[in-house]
Amino acid sequence: MRYIVVGAGTAGCVVAARLSEDPANSVTLIESGPDRHAGNRPEGVASVNWIRALGETAAFNEKITAARLPGSNRKQYMRGHGTGGSGAVNAMICLPGLPSDYDRWADDLGCTGWSWADVEPWYMRIQGGALQTDARFYTPVDRALMGAGVELGYRDDVDTYTPADGVGPVYLCADATTRMSTAEMWLDPARAEGRVSVRTGEGVDQLLWDGDRCVGVELLSGEQLAADHVVLCAGAFESPAILLRSGLQNPAVGMNLCDHPAASLRLVLNPELRGTDLEHACINVVLRASSSISNGDVHLLPLHGSLDDGATQALVMAALMTVRSTGRVYLDPDDVTGPPIIDMNMLTDPQDQQAMREAVLTMIDVLQTGAFAEIVEEVVVDSRGTSLDELRAASVMDEWLRETMGDYFHACGTCRMGRPDDPAAVVDLEGKLIGRSGVHVIDASILPDVPAANTHWPTVMIAERLTAGLMGRSLSDLEAVSLVEATPQSQP
Question: Quick one: 36 and 107 in the same domain?
Answer without folding.
Answer: yes
